[in-house]
Design brief:
Elements: E1 10-16, H1 23-37, E2 41-48, H2 54-64, E3 68-73, H3 78-89, E4 94-98, H4 109-114, E5 122-127, H5 134-151, E6 162-166, H6 167-173, H7 182-192, E7 197-202, H8 217-236
Parallel strand pairs: 1-2, 1-4, 2-3, 5-7
Antiparallel strand pairs: 4-6, 5-6
Length: 247
Amino acid sequence: MKDVKKIPSLSVIFPAYNDGGTIASMVATAKIAAEQVTDDFEIIVVNDASIDYTAEVLEEMQKRYVELRVIQHETNRGYGGALISGFSAAKKDWIFYTDGDAQYNPLELTKLVEALSVGVDAVNGYKAGRSDSLMRIFIGRLYHHFVKLLFGIRIRDVDCDFRLIPTKVMQEIQLKSFSGSICLEMVKKIESAGYVFAEVPVNHYARKYGVSQFFNFKRILQTLNQLAHLYWTLIIKKEHLNKPHGH
């Protein structure tokens, strides 16, 4: 086995909402993945007021994994809210995050680390294939092309939640979205600040447990509303460019 590239330290972050059936395997796999790329890591799970047995599973996992920190939300703050909590709590040099529902494999973290080189600030995964229904694939592609055009996004898959980003960059960009539109806000703000993404293909797996929180009519309407708000703040007013930053 060839030597894997190393990074100084790493915070692995999982937002979790009703992921009781998958979060234990994600934490266990994240530990294996993190140990391959660094000697100094923590695993942070943000339990966003789950109503299944996610909290009980995490309590049990904390007895076995000293690296695991659990942040409990008393009320549901949404996907973006969970990520913001996780990012704020990160204490290491790099942040790697993916979802707690096991649609991505943390062991592919090594691919992200391998892609780090001179001139690359962060690494974004893109789905090599999508294990979803045709309807989800269609809506996903539509959404992707729509936001890429509307927001001038340079990366090919804004919707792939499998990213490795320096913690100092996350602290600098100040995210505000509490919904799934946080991914778009994050990528746009990172690119606008002059940081460069490398991209690597990662596998996408069918959901084994629970149901998607995104694909219902109410959620899609909320997303469109949030996209309009983001377009106003990021593209029309360019609020994020008016602040001095350290890059």
